[in-house]
Amino acid sequence: MFEEYKNHDIAVYAGYLKDDTKLMQSASGGVATALASYVLEQGGYVVGVAYTPDLHNAEYIIIHDQSELYKLKGSKYIDTQKGTIYKDVKQLLSEGELVLFTGTPCTVAALHKMVGRPENLISCELICHGPTLPKVHQDFIATLERKEKSKIIDFSVRHKKHEWQPSYICAKFKNGAIYEKPLFETDYGYAFMMLGKEGCYKCQFRGDNRTGDIMVGDFWGATENDEFWNKCGVSVIFAETERGNELVKKIEDFQLFESDFERAVEQNPMIIRPKDKEVKTDLFKQLLFEKGLHYATIHTYSKKKRIKYFLEKILPNGVVSAVKKIKK
Ligand SMILES: Cc1cc2nc3c(=O)[nH]c(=O)nc-3n(C[C@H](O)[C@H](O)[C@H](O)COP(=O)(O)OP(=O)(O)OC[C@H]3O[C@@H](n4cnc5c(N)ncnc54)[C@H](O)[C@@H]3O)c2cc1C
Ligand code: SF4
Hints:
Elements: H1 3-6, E1 11-17, H2 20-25, H3 31-41, E2 45-51, E3 58-63, E4 80-81, H4 85-94, E5 99-103, H5 105-115, E6 121-126, H6 134-148, E7 152-159, E8 168-173, E9 178-182, H7 187-194, E10 214-218, E11 235-239, H8 242-250, E12 254-259, H9 261-266, H10 281-291, H11 293-298, H12 303-314, H13 319-327
Parallel strand pairs: 2-5, 3-4, 5-6, 6-10
Antiparallel strand pairs: 1-11, 1-12, 2-3, 7-8, 8-9, 10-11
The structure holds flavin-adenine dinucleotide (FAD) and iron/sulfur cluster.
Flavin-adenine dinucleotide is lined by residues 26-33, 48-49, 58, 72-77, 80, 102-104, 126-129, 131, 216-218, 220, 235, 268, 270.
């Protein structure tokens, strides 16, 4: 299986940050944080994605200090503003600065097209299912803020409440309130699976077309029977070039295990193929812009999900779950 892609990578690893507190703040095993931390220690610059200060969008930023690393932690599941990032990185590279660029595979490919592969650049791509549209994120945040009558000051779609899985949405409000719900039980999680950017359904930057020095993601399919298991999160790491492999082997405070391509891809198809468009994607998008996120969600639910949703709305608290228990 996967023979045609196997020779692309020099090595495949699994691993996680040794410090559990830091690991719990990262989306998966924290390898992106470990790589960034190492490059900052060498006096280099790190490019990654942070939420904008108003939390309404996500953008590429450059950091040069460990104190800013928290901004990059955690996956932002929305299309990201590029601003002047390619130009700024080109400038740093021309001044001889060491740069680690972390981004989606298409962004990494665009950067390499612009600047080539100078020795002071290391690129790290994320395995990419494709983001959803900022409108989803903005509607979700606005609804929460309206209900709570308070501004959100911190937001994550990959919050580890107890452990790595399931991912929670966590929103912290100015008034001290906290909203927490498993991502895939929310309108946001539904939209992430239902609606991507048009180009993402035909994404080329997979399999052999990956252009980074390193690719990282979640080691989906890892279980407690694996020696590299950690309930707080496990990263999968593909060293695509010698430069990438050298850097991965240098990172400290990170527990690294050798793995193999087949095992890593088994439960993570986005490494080799783009996601499929859902039958109701276009309808969802239309309703999202006409009527908002929640309306689009409940009006594109499957029949079974819709019945459950409306029963939960009209029946007193607890009745639906009691019925479910009786059925079992
Ligand atoms: C839209 C999207 C889809 C993804 N789909 C998959 C998938 O199908 N399978 C899989 O295994 N992994 C996927 N990932 C990657 C995964 O969610 C983690 O981001 C990755 O494993 C890094 O985790 P970490 O613990 O090493 O990173 P952390 O230590 O938490 O650091 C987060 C890193 O992610 C970067 N980042 C955050 N949001 C974005 C963004 N929107 N675009 C570019 N870079 C970003 C930050 O700059 C930082 O480098 C996806 C990520 C995104 C953003
Ligand atoms: S799915 Fe492909 S095109 Fe879409 S953001 Fe990811 S890498 Fe880019």
